[in-house]
Amino acid sequence: MAGKLCVSVIEARNLQADDFAEKNFYVKLRVGSNEVKTDVVKGSLQPKFLKDCRLSVPLPETDILRIELLQVGPRGDLVVGSDDLRILTITSRGTIVHWFQLRTAGRDVSAELCLVLRYLSAGAHRPMSPTYAIAARQAKERALEGPPAPQTPSTSAFRDLPSAAAPGGTSTSGRLTAASSPADQQGSSATAAAAGTRGPMAAGPGMARGPPRQQVSSTGSRRPGRPSDGSRSGPTQVPLPLAVLGGMVVGALVYLWKKRPVYYEVQEDDTLCHIASCFKKRVEDVYQKNKALLKNPSRLYPGDRLRIR
């Protein structure tokens, strides 16, 4: 059954571009005879396209999405890399955020391209879910935060990318412990034995206590004593009023963050009922918060900003 494919072209990375041409790139998507292009991004090896596209899919069982990254050249545009995706593999997977490996004619990886995709069947009984628009907006915000760190191309098969994870994000930290060697312990025991064999004397009422000495246990290891300069070791204690004040400030910030207003921008084919269900809200509550904007709750216009919370 025919349908349409929603694609958001986010950004590219790890480009192997032609050094003799200007660093101007654009993306071309094609399904059958339907073709769309992004705007040309100039002067960057990490271009951010941030383009939303829609393509008609006459035969999702056999149609293929052709993805091409091109570099504008003086004698014609050069294909940096390309990839093919069968529409059938994503028809039932919902919204997908994925880095595609674009390869040259020699099958070498020449670039990676981030796309957000969602297939919509023409016979679906409900309109498009706002999850696609939310995922696309989040991907664009991550792209605009700053240039991504250089990464090697992934060799994994087509799969969904986790939203909160990045490649190589898990780090293992070791614990460093300071320990004295057996030779040091033996030398310390011999020094303590040579200094005297008398045990520690109890200080009487009129006797002055001398500087603390480190005692030697029966196992030969030294027991730490109080430093001679009178300073204390260990973490510094925070005064109780300051700790209480800090907790109150943190609690107030958390409360304000939870109570902050949340807005959603209406996309094509959205309905008030489905938007409310995606945010786990009642339709009546969403309508009451946007009563001034929504003259008719059955009519939504793309671009309207609805307050959800």
From TrEMBL:
Residues 187-238 have a biased composition (Low complexity). Residues 1-100 form the C2 domain. Pfam families: C2, LysM. Residues 169-186 have a biased composition (Polar residues). This is C2 domain-containing protein. Residues 262-308 form the LysM domain. It comes from the Eukaryota. Residues 138-238 are annotated as: Disordered. The chain crosses the membrane at residues 238-257. Keywords: Membrane, Transmembrane, Transmembrane helix.
